[in-house]
Amino acid sequence: MEKNNLQAALQKQAAFGADLDLKKFDDNNDVHLQSAEDLSASGKAKLEKVGIDLQESNRSATFVQVDNAQLKSDVKPETPLTLMNTGLAAQKYPDLVEKYWWHAVKPDTDKYTAITALEKENGYFIHVRAGAKIAFPLQACVFMSHEEQLQRVHNVVILEEGSELNIISGCASDEAVEHGVHLGISEMFVGKNAKLSFTMIHNWGHNVAVRPRTVTLVAEGGTYISNYVCMEKVKDIQMYPTVRLQGKGAVARLNSVLVAPPGSHMDVGGKAVLEVPGTRAEIVTRSISTGGEIINRGNLTGDAENIKAHLECHGLMLSNEGYIRAIPELFAETGNSELSHEAAVGRIAPEEIQYLMARGMSEEEATATIVRGFLNVNIEGLPATLSKKITDTLDAFQMNKGM
Amino acid sequence: MLNIEHLSVAVGDKQILTDINLHIGYGEVHVLFGPNGTGKSTLISTIMGFENYKVLEGKIVFKGQDITRASCDERARLGIGVMIQRPPTIRGLSLRKMVEICGATSKEAESMAAWMGMTDFLDRSVNEGFSGGELKRSELLQLMAQKPELLLLDEPESGVDVENIALVGRAANYILQHVDCRQDKKCGTSCCGHKADCPKNNPLAESGHSGLIITHLGHILKYVPASHAHILYNGRMTCPKGDPLEVLQCISRMGYEHCAGAACARKG
Ligand SMILES: Nc1ncnc2c1ncn2[C@@H]1O[C@H](COP(=O)(O)OP(=O)(O)OP(=O)(O)O)[C@@H](O)[C@H]1O
Ligand SMILES: [Mg+2]
User: Fold this and answer.
1) A201 and A75, same structural domain?
2) Is a pLDDT exceeding 60 seen at residue B201?
């Protein structure tokens, strides 16, 4: 990509979401913290909430970036994977740069990708050798500690043929950070017969704006499972991760669980492009508004014969404030494809609450049970402690009566 | 156990039940007949306390306690359990979890489900995609775990195949803790269950559990001994103390209107 084309792209508004004025934020590469141990207690607590275990038990590797600086990049001994800062990897492996860097995400997609491509590279580079099946999850944490920070991240994940990896990617900001912008570009390459589970959990500050840009390419026989969980207030997040199934038998499943408290705006989509015959995709979203705004975009594009994909988007309004909008799109370009969608947005049916009450539950218990059931999508690859945390968060909800 | 006095009920602006009186003693099983749309399900829903059913007049007393204004869950905890005609689906809540919520241990849930032929359904969402007969078994399984003292069944046999009606009957008897003596031959003759002159009309009346069963064709009565029958006609209760099988015969021969009228009142 020509540098001046990218310069021009710095002005390019994104297809969706409010336009952010990046100049208002501090695009520095200063090191604000020396090590993960220096994080504030509240910061550490937040990391735990997004699935990051600083004790590193049951983890194969750990990566921590704070603001725009890498603090930690450790791989447990004898683990057949490479993990390092993306900028460092770019210097070390020019052939990989040639083959992968900015091949999944176009750098001139919008101003956010452009600025990330132009500036010094940060983020994680993960490379799993052919045939290596990594038992424990790799955890990667991107943390914002500095007020008015513009955080840029470029992640590159490469799974070679027949390898398997489970990534827990936790993103959060310190309690003290009132305002900030997080730009996260992730390019993922799932090789032939490889399997990647990617679980991303967000927990941002009240005034943080977030613009992830994720594209995953899946080769023949490969499997990509993406889980996205955001249950805390975030001022403005807009993302539309895309997975392109490029080899026969490639499979993708994208799950999202969103809870939007008052003051949140979540514009979260998911797109699967089925480029060759014999590919399958499923996008499942569960959204709850407790007063915030949620837009669920979903897109299935079938470019080939003999493909199958389903889009499912269910929303539950638990408040009279806020809204949930579901915008499903299906594009079938051949006669022999099976694309379907199912969208439903509504309140909890009173009959359901009454039914559970007739079995002895209080109104609050009944409501919580229905909400929990609603969010109970089968999230593969989620560590047990994390799914428990999600349940606990739900239990802690203060349900308004008489919804 | 249950005393309903001068009960009038409306749904929305529409009055459906007028001046209903119903007394169900400990250990008694009553049957409720009546044409479609006459208010039978409304009565059961009002006894359970579902919120859409507005009591305009009268009261409901359960085990000596006035529950006319009590919430649904209070009534459940006091010992009332219901099988409704069209139970909703609860997505994401497994039947297993539901049976445990109703009061079974996980081991009991397993064995009760096996008994009800519902093992394969335990890990499915409650009622999701269940067939008509499966819904009834799902409801009964939950009620087995809930162990109510007053069992309200709304057309338990509708949509159930011939073989499964026996199972539904056994489940109802289990919950009522009644034994169908006609099969156990405890009574020696076929007298029990439906003849008022049989001394052991309610063979397990000592359990004290009572029931109110809505049925159109009465198939369930082959399996569940019932002591009393009523006809609900035009929103009013008639025929207060009929014998279930005789009332059923009357209805099939002469129709609801006739039986709800003088002919039945004479017998009662
Ligand atoms: N929620 C409601 N809104 C409006 N009308 C209702 C509602 N519930 C019941 N009704 C009406 O009340 C009347 C009695 O209904 P109910 O369900 O109690 O009848 P039923 O005797 O159980 O009939 P069936 O034998 O067909 O089950 C019917 O006319 C029905 O349409
Ligand atoms: Mg009915």
Assistant:
1) yes
2) no
Partners of residue A370 in chain B, C-beta under 8 Å:
90, 93
My answer on whether A336 and A383 are in the same domain is: no
pLDDT at A399 (0 to 100): 44
Where does ligand 1 bind, in terms of residues with CB under 6 Å?
B 11-12, 14, 16, 34, 36-42, 52, 85
Using CB atoms within 10 A of its CB, is residue B107 exposed (0-12), middle (13-18) or buried (19+)? exposed
Residue A379 sits in the same domain as residue A330: no
Verify that A9 and A158 share a domain, yes or no: yes
Residues A109 and A182 in one domain: yes
Q: Find which of A288, A313, A348, A356 to mutate to test the B interface (most B CBs within 10 Å of its CB).
A: A356
pLDDT over threshold 80, residue B197: no
Question: Looking at the structure, do residues A285 and A234 belong to the same domain, yes or no?
Answer: yes
Measured between CB atoms, which of A358, A366, A377 is closest to B48?
A: A358
Which site among B93, B130, B149 would you substitute to test the A interface, given the most A Cβ atoms closer than 10 Å to its Cβ?
A: B93
Query: If you compute the radius of gyration of chain A from its CA atoms, what whole number of angstroms results?
Result: 21
ipTM of the complex: 0.90
Quote the domain boundaries for residue A387. Answer: 351-403
Same domain? For A285 and A360 the reply is no
Distances (CA, A) of B29 to A105, A376, B106, B166, B228: 71, 40, 30, 17, 7
Please name the residue whose Cα sits nearest to atom 6 of ligand 1.
B11
Q: Are residues A376 and A241 in the same domain?
A: no
Total domains in chain A come to: 2
Instruction: Report whether pLDDT(B189) > 80.
Output: no
CATH number assigned to the domain comprising residue B149: 3.40.50.300
